[in-house]
Amino acid sequence: xxxxVARDRxxxxxxxxxxxxxxxxxxxxLVIFGLFVxxxxxxQGETVRIMYxxxxxxxxAYLAFIVTALSSAMYLWRRTRSLTWDxxxxxxxxxxxxxxxxxxxxxxxxxxxxxxxxxxWDARLTTTAFLFVTYIGYLAVRNxxxxxxxxxxxxxxxxxxxxxxxPLVHFSVEIWNSLHQEASVAGNxxxxxxxxxxxxxxxGVIVFTLMYVWMLLHRQRxxxxxxxxxxxxxxxxxxxxxxxxxxx
Amino acid sequence: xxRTAKTIAAKDLRIELRSRVIANxxxxxxxxxxxxxxxxxxxxxVLERVAxxxxxxxxxxxxxxxxxxxxxxxxxxxxxxxLRAAGVDPMGIFLGKTxxxxxxxxxxxxxxxxxxxxxxxxxxxASGGVLLVTTAILATVGLASVGTLYGGLAAGAKGRxxxxxxxxxxxxxPVLIGATRATESAFGTNGIDVSEGWPWLGLLAVFAVxxxxxxxxxxxxxxxx
Amino acid sequence: xxxxxxxxxxxxxxxxxxxxxxVVVLGAFPALAGVSLTVDRGEIVLLSGPNGAGKxxxxxxxxxxxxxxxxxxxxxxxxxxxxxxxxxxxxxxxxHHNGLYSDLSVAENVRFWGSTVxxxxxxxxxAMQRMGLDGxxxxxxxxxxxxxxxxxxxxxxxxxxxxxxWLLDEPHAGLDAEGRDELDSVLRAAAAAGATIMVASHELxxxxxxxxRHVRVVAGQVVPVSGGAA
Lengths: 248, 225, 230
Prior knowledge:
The complex is a heterotrimer.
Chain A: H1 2-8, H2 14-37, H3 51-76, H4 83-115, H5 123-142, H6 148-179, H7 195-244
Chain B: H1 2-19, H2 21-41, H3 44-75, H4 79-85, H5 90-119, H6 126-154, H7 160-187, H8 198-223
Helix pairs in contact in B: 1-5, 2-3, 2-5, 3-5, 3-6, 3-7, 5-6, 5-8, 6-7, 6-8, 7-8
Chain C: H1 6-9, E1 17-26, E2 29-39, E3 44-48, H2 55-62, E4 70-75, E5 78-79, H3 84-90, E6 91-94, H4 106-115, H5 121-130, H6 147-160, E7 165-169, H7 177-192, E8 196-200, H8 206-209, E9 213-218, E10 221-223
Parallel strand pairs in C: 3-8, 3-9, 6-7, 7-8
Antiparallel strand pairs in C: 1-2, 1-4, 4-5, 9-10
């Protein structure tokens, strides 16, 4: 009896446990390959190893963003309206902010070490930074309060607005840079990659994606439990209110 | 819906005429920002180069105040909620408030461009003038639409004074970029020719059309309970 | 003045307001814990009860302003959950706020609300006259009015908007004795002309003089009051 109740209160399932193990194994593999097995770059030396964290991080940030946008659309679509979509969107956004932060920081460090500058205004970096800020705004709006559906509707509309805004930002910065040749030099991330480095890069992308899925499943379930808590609280409060009035 | 929009735009503008908040507070604020920039940058050569950007930067900062004011008068006595409670078409509300906002913005921009011509010694030719006016119109439509949309979202919310800039700034970046570049050509700074400015209007036009349409559709769900 | 709207005349509905077992949740709090109530045309129903009992929420639920978690509510035969916009057009809710623009005059405010439904200037003049706002008051900015005058301006907007159901939350709050009497006579006249009015109020003395029926709201539920059916 107690075991069943305990099982209901955790967000892990056999699938996520298996996934977690595979992910950890993948991380170990990635670390070994990234830090030790792969060769240093001809031009950049050891600093190229940041790439194995930076590129997958950026990839994940954009994947999370797309997932948030798609789930938001699914929530708004009348036929599939369900709070599960809203929670997926929220969980994905939280993870996305995390990976975006990682991507921006590692990118800055890499830039500093390789080309001597922390930042440059190329289209990709600028768009990522703006996406980061947009997401923080999105998370702030999620915490404005109200019923679960109110939260879901507001955030869903906001997420879809972000889908519009990000390509616009990217596009405008790109045109701007193509007219001013200054910014292009530092943005050159050409790395002559041999087979092993390429493989490790793909490994990184896969491992990070597994991490994302694992975190998404857990976080989305945690959000579901939080919402359920609100609802259970409601049933209990309803009962309490009824007795309060002497009506049962 | 159009009748609603007209009624609401007229109401907003009449209130502004009566209370003069934008005229007496926001426009002086924006002019002050321009002057402070002049002090901070302290070099005529630099100022002339960045004048176009400064005009639009000051405009965007002012947008926060104008939008906040636009919705403050709605939430002061529960008018916006009363409007929604009365079943007034949200698209009409959006269009009306956007129109009023745009009108106030144009007035602001006129003052700022004038200020930059005086303070930063900007120089405008006839064709540059046409470019400038078109830029202002397109940029304004975009800013007004986005401002009304996000202003509605943040209206009455806790922390709205900081929420609004946080939400708006990333979104208006394309307008800042496009308007600045177009204005640069209009002013002839850095020897940029007027003809180079017109392509940027394409960006501004896309932004304006996109956000006025999307705003009209999204405004209702966003401000509803 | 506020006759049943033409588009609804052909439809059949038993009660102007028909609420059945409605549960409304605000955040996690069950503001209404299963409420049932019917109101008919021309009635003035007084909702009394302690603070936090749910009177305001009940009014807002009838106005289509809060989502209904469980149960069913209809106004003028229109379902409050699925036909919200239609319901809202025929309902006027005045609570702590009056929904007025303080920089505009009384006449401008009433005219604004009237124009949202395309009311003619004659209708607007009538609305102001019925609320005693024609004459000296009409051009004063709302900011300079007394609480009672603002209330009446808000009510004039309801008339101008052709609202058939008036939901008033503590309308007597902040009014002096004269203001309250003025308000009551105006409300009685409106009900006589066909409006249906629900008033939430602490003031039990009103039960006799103003209301045609008295309903008590306690802890999110409607409790029958002796001498009347809920």
